[in-house]
Amino acid sequence: MNMPSYLPVLFIFVAALGVGLTFWLLFAVFRAKQRQVQSQGLTKRPDGGINVPLVAAFGGWKFIPWVASSSSSIAPLLVLHESDLEYRVIRAKRRPYTEVSSVDLRTAIGTVNIVFEFRTSMRTFAANTASRQNAAEALAILQDKGCLLTERARSLLATREIESE
């Protein structure tokens, strides 16, 4: 039995097409979620906390700022309560604002991340808001709670104040 010479080429073409369609589908789903989150604003919860809508959440380390050790785009959470913040990458945690050593803002194409560093941990929490508006509102609340904002975070707030005048 002789295999036709076009079968390996056909197999490679079909495999490449399948991989390409899979990546396109993942990109389309991510983009749709990103647009949905961008259109939402901060909302007040029944318990009084303020929910910040997120596309994804990441857990990382202070000494490697752009590398995540854990991530979640299924059920990310950031809630700003009166005396503490609640967040979730894999499981929900609550920390008082006094444990937050700094709040940074990191942006890249399609991402607007609020990054929390904690005094008692080498771990960080990054929340992708996908919206400069939502990030600015959350940063203003965090600043009012006494959290130390980095220069990048303060510059977003300054830009927001200029635009509102």
Notes on the protein architecture:
The protein has a single domain (40-164), classed as Pleckstrin-homology domain (PH domain)/Phosphotyrosine-binding domain (PTB) (PH-domain like). The chain contains three helices and ten strands, in the order αββββββββββαα. It has helices at 7-39, 132-144, 151-164; strands spanning 43-44, 50-51, 56-61, 64-72, 77-80, 84-88, 92-96, 100-108, 111-118, 123-128. α2 (132-144) packs across α3. The model has no long low-confidence stretch (mean pLDDT 89).
Keywords:
5-stranded antiparallel sheet, PH-domain like, 165 residues, alpha+beta
Binned strand content: 25-35%
Q: How confident is the prediction overall: mean pLDDT?
A: 89
Which structural class matches the secondary elements? alpha+beta
How many domains, in number, for the residues? 1
Transmembrane segments: 6-30
Keywords: Membrane, Transmembrane, Transmembrane helix
Protein name: DUF2550 domain-containing protein
Write the layout of secondary structure elements.
Layout: H1 7-39, E1 43-44, E2 50-51, E3 56-61, E4 64-72, E5 77-80, E6 84-88, E7 92-96, E8 100-108, E9 111-118, E10 123-128, H2 132-144, H3 151-164
Antiparallel strand pairs: 1-2, 2-5, 3-4, 3-10, 5-6, 6-7, 8-9, 9-10
Helix pairs in contact: 2-3
Organism: Phyllobacterium myrsinacearum
Keywords: Membrane, Transmembrane, Transmembrane helix
Protein name: DUF2550 domain-containing protein
